[in-house]
């Protein structure tokens, strides 16, 4: 199995990452070698095995639908790159 | 004063031999003097530390006696600490002052421990050598031309150089045990869910687990007493009572059955390193333990399983870094898409980007079953191997790492050589089991760690087994510098 630089560009786009042409070759080579390595997983027979998502097979714990946190918007927005009137600012989306 | 263990500092404070402010200043001075050569700290929180120490001194004179009250320590920079820089080793969080405390930070604060600062680490805990940190690599105090291991390399190096008597750390595939091994200190990775992950910057949520790095097993018990516990804010936190982890330290090891996984002693292991491990096991036999060979037949698949599951979870977790709510944002974005893409491309380092891409690939439509589900199924086979082994033995013993500390750049050219650094530690994370690495010898002047793996929630047993070894050997006392 191998992967080419076109596929890497598509993945990068999905992950909102961008590589210049110079980096792309090296990234492709390195990822191809990791994917070749993980390909050995296909040698194992696992048809009857349940996938394991949690080491103790625990399920999501539920809690009562009650308000437990106070509003700390100002405190939390202090670390934001840009805010105004309690809103997060981003580049204009609609012209 | 810096040669004292955490437990010795704890009793010294309560006996009035020295004040918390004195010992805190001593460590702060030592960090200022010595850390420029090791780079083990990203931030030193001098002012807050002195304040906390003075507060602790007042409480001690008022008769309070909690074990960690006034005791200095350092936090891995993956734990959110209120009002303090929290970077996770990344440019993405270069200026992030956390507005809240992680549960681990809050627990240690409540115990009265004094935070000296934040230790360096591989970016977002992705690495085994500390070379991926945005803040530059940590240097191994035993030999500054060598890596300290990773990702908790700063915590391990700081404890080894006696810049802090203990440090918090995290372990996703070996990130507590491997740097502990390479720096000659004690590192405990507890059972998955034993310590809350809340406020601990996420890498791979089904594998991440916090733990302490210390000089001794006794000190690890002391730290775990305060770090562990159920936390409703972490949906995978396990609701089990926290025993006093020091209570069983002195139990006899007569009748203990040690399992040696034959796959961990197969070809590929340096014979000189194997001799050191065998010598440690002989020491255990002299303490009354018996040894039995066991098999973990699927262990060769643990590294490939890990490099599907960990990148998959990391690509999901790291999607939160978008330049909107916190952290880095690129300059003058032309539109939203440009802002996301440039923020992430400029803010993440190379290894983090590679893992995001691998994760995106294995989760993408058409490959999800072939990689992600197949990895999760194989993960169960690996776990089952451990379950079977623990039906026959009390603990497993193995090397922590296939070699002692290696040189900078020795393993950066090919990601796979670096990934194989964690070949003996990753299975433990996949199964969710506890493991500890303790210093067990030296090879060419570099420390070698013995890994002890226990059954679920057997931290008391692991600490007992480690502590008994440290009662009859002196490797944990060896220091790289005075």
Describe the structure.
- The complex is a heterodimer of chains A (95) and B (482).
- Chain A has helices spanning 5-14, 21-38, 73-77; strands at 83-84, 87-88.
- By secondary structure, chain A is mainly alpha-helical.
- Chain A has a domain at 5-43.
- Chain A has a two-stranded antiparallel sheet with strand order 1-2.
- The model of chain A has no long low-confidence stretch (mean pLDDT 92).
- Chain B is of the alpha/beta class and 482 residues long.
- Chain B folds into two domains: 6-255 and 394-477, Amidase signature (AS) domain (Amidase signature (AS) enzymes); 303-373, no CATH class.
- Chain B has helices at residues 6-15, 20-38, 46-61, 103-110, 153-160, 177-183, 217-227, 271-286, 302-317, 336-347, 350-363, 368-389, 415-419, 426-431, 459-472, and strands spanning 41-44, 72-76, 114-119, 166-171, 186-189, 209-214, 257-261, 290-294, 395-399, 435-443, 446-454.
- In chain B, the strands form two sheets. An eight-stranded mixed beta sheet of chain B has the order 4-6-5-10-11-9-7-8, with helices on both faces. A three-stranded mixed beta sheet of chain B has the order 1-3-2, with helices on both faces.
- In chain B, helix 8 (271-286) links the parallel strand 7 and strand 8.
- Chain B is globular.
Task: State the gist of this model.
The complex is a heterodimer of chains A (95) and B (482). With 95 residues, chain A is mainly α. Chain A is 35% helix and 4% strand.
Large-scale geometry of chain B: globular
Parts with pLDDT < 50 across at least 5 consecutive residues of chain B: none
- Strand residue percentage of chain B: 5-15%
The secondary structure category of chain B is alpha/beta
- Name of the top-level CATH class of the largest domain in chain B: Alpha Beta
Give the radius of gyration of chain B: 21 Å
- End-to-end Cα distance of chain B: 11 Å
User: What's the arrangement of strands in the largest beta sheet of chain B?
Assistant: 4-6-5-10-11-9-7-8
Arithmetic mean pLDDT of chain A: 92
Quantity of strands of chain B, as a count: 11
Q: What composes the largest sheet of chain A?
A: 2 strands, antiparallel
Question: Per DSSP, what share of the residues of chain A sits in E-state strands of 2 or more residues?
Answer: under 5%
Which residue ranges of chain A are poorly predicted, with pLDDT under 50 across at least 5 consecutive positions? Answer: none
Q: Name the chain pair whose interface involves the most residues.
A: A-B, 48 and 71 residues
Structural class of chain A: mainly alpha
CATH topology of the largest domain in chain B: Amidase signature (AS) enzymes
Strand order in the largest sheet of chain A: 1-2
Gap from first CA to last CA of chain A: 45 Å
Largest sheet of chain B: 8 strands, mixed
Into which percent range does the helicity of residues of chain A fall? 25-40%
């Amino acid at each position: 199995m191998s992967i080419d630089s076109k596929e890497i560009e598509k993945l990068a786009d999905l992950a909102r990452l961008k590589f210049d042409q110079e980096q792309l070759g090296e990234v492709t080579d390195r990822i191809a070698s990791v994917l070749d390595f993980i390909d050995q997983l296909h040698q194992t027979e696992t048809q009857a095995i349940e996938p394991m998502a949690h080491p103790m097979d625990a399920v999501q714990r539920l809690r009562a639908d009650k308000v437990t946190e106070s509003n700390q918007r100002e405190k939390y927005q202090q670390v934001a790159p840009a805010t105004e009137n309690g809103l997060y600012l981003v580049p204009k989306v609609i012209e | 004063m810096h040669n004292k263990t955490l437990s010795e500092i704890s009793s010294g404070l309560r006996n009035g031999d020295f004040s918390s402010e004195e010992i805190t200043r001593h460590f702060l001075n030592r960090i200022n003097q010595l850390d420029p050569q090791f780079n083990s700290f990203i931030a030193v929180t001098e002012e807050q530390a002195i304040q906390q120490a003075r507060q602790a001194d007042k409480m001690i004179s008022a008769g309070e006696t909690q074990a960690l009250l006034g005791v200095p320590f350092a936090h891995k920079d993956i734990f959110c600490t209120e009002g303090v820089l929290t970077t996770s080793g990344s440019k993405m969080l270069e200026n992030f002052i956390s507005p809240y405390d992680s549960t681990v930070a809050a627990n240690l604060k409540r115990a009265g421990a004094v935070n000296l600062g934040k230790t360096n680490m591989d970016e977002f805990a992705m690495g085994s050598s500390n070379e991926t940190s945005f803040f530059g690599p940590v240097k191994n105090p035993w030999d500054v031309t060598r890596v300290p291991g990773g990702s908790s390399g700063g915590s391990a190096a700081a404890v080894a150089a006696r810049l802090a008597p203990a440090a918090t750390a995290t372990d996703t595939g070996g990130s507590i045990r491997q740097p502990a091994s390479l720096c000659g200190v004690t590192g405990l990775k507890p059972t998955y869910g034993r310590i809350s992950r809340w406020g601990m910057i996420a890498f791979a949520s089904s594998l991440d687990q916090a733990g302490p790095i210390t000089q001794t097993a006794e000190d690890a018990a002391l730290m775990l007493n305060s770090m562990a516990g159920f936390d409703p804010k972490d949906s995978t936190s396990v609701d089990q009572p926290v025993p006093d982890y020091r209570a069983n330290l002195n139990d006899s090891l007569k009748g203990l059955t040690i399992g040696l996984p034959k796959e961990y002693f197969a070809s590929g292991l340096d014979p000189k390193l194997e001799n050191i491990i065998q010598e440690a096991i002989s020491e255990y036999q002299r303490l009354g333990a018996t040894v039995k060979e066991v098999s973990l037949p699927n262990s060769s698949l643990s590294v490939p399983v890990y490099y599907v599951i960990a990148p998959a979870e990391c690509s999901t977790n790291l999607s939160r870094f978008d330049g909107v709510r916190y952290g880095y944002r690129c300059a003058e974005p032309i539109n939203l898409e440009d802002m996301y893409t440039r923020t992430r491309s400029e803010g993440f380092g190379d290894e983090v980007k590679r893992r995001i891409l691998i994760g995106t690939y294995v989760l993408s439509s058409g490959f999800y079953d072939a990689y992600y589900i197949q990895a999760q199924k194989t993960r169960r086979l690996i776990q089952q191997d451990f379950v079977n082994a623990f039906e026959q033995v009390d603990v497993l013993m193995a090397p922590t790492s296939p070699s002692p500390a290696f040189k900078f750049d020795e393993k950066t050219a090919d990601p796979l050589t670096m990934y194989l650094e964690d070949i003996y530690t990753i299975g433990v994370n996949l199964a969710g089991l506890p493991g500890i690495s303790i210093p067990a010898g030296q090879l060419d002047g570099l420390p070698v760690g013995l890994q002890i793996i226990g059954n679920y929630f057997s931290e008391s047993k692991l600490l007992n087994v480690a502590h008994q070894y440290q009662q009859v050997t002196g490797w944990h006392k060896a220091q790289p510098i005075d």
